[in-house]
Specification:
heterodimer; A: 296 residues; mainly alpha; MetI-like fold; 2 domains; 14 helices; B: 310 residues
């Protein structure tokens, strides 16, 4: 329930790609054409989504197929945004709220936990670390049903508590931050100690500021994991007002089962926040994925 | 914003472990960890050994009855559970090699400089940021039996008959697998790009002096040097594929005739639709046991990393 496995693939090694060799023009042309063809294929579903969303329903089903919308209209978007039962902006807000709270608490919790594991000596330290790391081996499907039954008992069904707390003690973040903290220089910490700083001041004023790349990477992973979570909110939230965006969109797909224009408008709207975030964070996201900030 | 759980005790000289300080830092995590990680595992096993009816007053102990059901031919649990396992294994077996080789191929196409390289990287990475439900709805629409883009292209461009992808057994896997490749290829491609960038050019220069062909260079330099990252990609991809859920739920709803129903989908159906929490728990443990193998491999790879820096 923390990060979906598809998104937690973290590279163990590697730096940024360096560019070897000079540019060999004649050889490059077929490669360029191949890449263009692949790019067109990759973008085709996005194109089909946007153009369908811009078509009136009669144009969606018209034959021959309208490869370009002949009479583009924003009616589908208007209808989806003002739909009385189920409000896509409400779901977006819910997702944003849940993912933000989750990320802030999760990253704080992981930093507090990774700090003594990386920078202090105490009995049981290695055992505690290996227990936390070992918990990553527990397949989440094993805890799905008991956690659901716990939510029933806590009366947390249809509450954001169910979306935020069960995944908060994720071992991956502790592991990642511990690895990063291990690599920080000892000297600064010792100097601060001599000046009378206590351990919390060391964490707050020295360790955390030096760890911003790792903290941001973990925050991005946590936010994406929470934002994209699908299976868990699907079952612990049934109130239409409390749904998160990924689940909310599927209720549209049940309602607009034959109205693809509206369905595609809703998926397009649902994609806008991540697209915007991606455009801003693209360079960082790709670099973070290939280095995970684990080795510097 | 870090919650200050630490009461600044007078600093004790750090020799060995004569301070409670580290444990105070660990306490908040430990509470959540015990409640939501350790306890549910035991609780789930307990539920699987009892007849857990939400409405009944008593929950009698039945031992391994629900596990035995899974191995008793004729029970719906046995039939649908193993059917879903077969589907899941099929999906994993097809999608893992496909995802590994296509992402490696893309990375090979992109790691040398070329006009628009950043643009291409962004395009191939882009689908991965969509949520699984949006991706699923999109591919269901692409493969819609009557008016999807795929059938429109088949009939109007290539002059072929339309195919009812979503309602024919076997064919229904096509949108699920293509959608999954499209959705996840960018992550693996990025890992491969990083790994390719780490290979020293001197190997290739030496090989070129010996007159090695492009294929020989790939076969004897690139591929062996990529072995560690390939292992990592195979294991993480297998782990992800084995947990197939959202794609088949949204694209085909597990149909036609349960032919694309994943194990996790069947477990959730048994729990949340049929209210058979004990039976579903038993299946989750059986399934978890198989997944443990993949997870163990991934764990080994990550632990090797952790030890290296200690």
């Amino acid at each position: 329930m923390a990060l979906p496995a598809q998104q937690t693939t973290a590279a163990p090694t590697a730096r940024t790609t360096n560019a070897p060799g000079g540019r060999r023009v004649p050889r490059d042309i077929p490669r360029f054409i191949l890449l263009c063809v692949l790019a067109v294929l990759f973008l085709a579903p996005i194109y089909w989504m946007v153009t369908t969303a811009l078509k009136a329903e009669t144009d969606v089903i018209s034959s021959p197929t309208q490869w370009f919308p002949a009479h583009p209209t924003l009616d589908n978007f208007r209808e989806v945004l003002t739909s009385p039962d189920g409000n896509i902006l409400r779901w977006m807000w819910n997702s944003l709220f849940v993912a933000t709270v989750f990320t802030v608490v999760h990253v704080s919790l992981c930093a507090l936990t990774a700090y003594p594991l990386a920078r202090m000596r105490f009995p049981g330290r290695d055992l505690i670390f290996w227990i936390i790391l070992g918990s990553m081996m527990i397949p989440w499907v094993v805890t799905l049903i008991p956690t659901y039954l716990m939510m029933l008992k806590f009366n947390w069904i249809n509450s954001f508590h169910a979306l935020i707390w069960p995944g908060i003690a994720g071992a991956f973040g502790v592991f990642m931050l511990r690895q990063f903290f291990l690599g920080l220089p000892k000297e600064l910490e010792e100097a601060a100690r001599l000046d009378g700083a206590n351990s919390f001041q060391v964490l707050w004023k020295i360790i955390l500021p030096l760890s911003i790349p790792a903290l941001v990477t973990l925050a991005v992973f946590s936010f994406m994991g929470s934002w994209n979570n699908f299976i868990w909110p699907l079952y612990v939230v049934t109130d239409i007002d409390k749904l998160t965006l990924p689940v909310g969109v599927t209720t549209f797909s049940q309602r607009y089962v034959t109205e693809y224009g509206k369905l595609m408008a809703s998926t397009a709207i649902a994609s806008i926040p991540v697209l915007v975030a991606y455009l801003f964070a693209q360079r960082y996201l790709i670099a973070g994925l290939s280095t995970t900030g684990m080795k510097e | 914003m870090t919650p200050s759980t630490h009461t600044s005790a007078p600093h004790v000289r750090k020799r060995g472990g004569n301070t409670v300080e580290p444990y105070l830092y660990l306490l908040p995590f430990a509470i959540f960890f015990a409640l939501f990680v350790i306890y549910p595992v035991g609780y789930g096993f307990f539920v699987s050994l009892h007849r857990w009816d939400l409405l009944a007053d008593t929950r009698p102990f039945v031992g391994f009855e629900y596990y035995k059901n899974l191995f008793t031919p004729g029970t719906p649990q046995a039939e649908f559970f193993w059917n879903s396992m077969k589907n899941t294994v099929f999906f994993t077996a097809v999608s893992v090699p496909l995802l590994v080789f296509t992402s490696l191929g893309l990375a090979l196409l992109l790691y040398r400089p070329i006009i628009g390289r950043a643009f291409f990287r962004a395009v191939f990475f882009l689908p991965g940021i969509l949520t699984v439900s949006v991706m699923g709805i999109l591919w269901r629409w692409m493969f819609d039996n009557q008016i999807g883009m795929v059938n429109a292209a088949r009939t109007e461009i290539f002059g072929l008959q339309p195919l009812a992808f979503l309602s024919v057994e076997g064919l229904a896997w096509v949108p699920i697998i293509i959608g999954t490749v499209w959705w996840t290829i960018g992550f693996n491609m990025t890992l491969y790009l990083a790994a390719l960038g780490n290979i020293s050019q001197s190997y290739y220069e030496a090989a070129e002096l010996d007159g090695a062909s492009a294929w020989a260079k790939f076969r004897f330099i690139t591929w062996p040097l990529l072995a560690p990252i390939t292992l990592f990609v195979v294991v993480t991809t297998a782990l992800a594929s084995f947990q197939l859920f959202g794609q088949s739920l949204v694209i085909t709803a597990g149909g036609p005739n349960r032919s694309t129903q994943s194990t996790i989908q069947y477990i959730t159906e048994e729990a949340f639709t049929n209210n058979q929490f004990s039976s579903a728990s038993a299946m989750a443990f059986m399934f978890g046991l198989v997944m443990l193998i993949f997870t163990f491999l991934q764990f080994r790879i990550m632990a090797r990393d952790a030890r290296g820096e200690n």
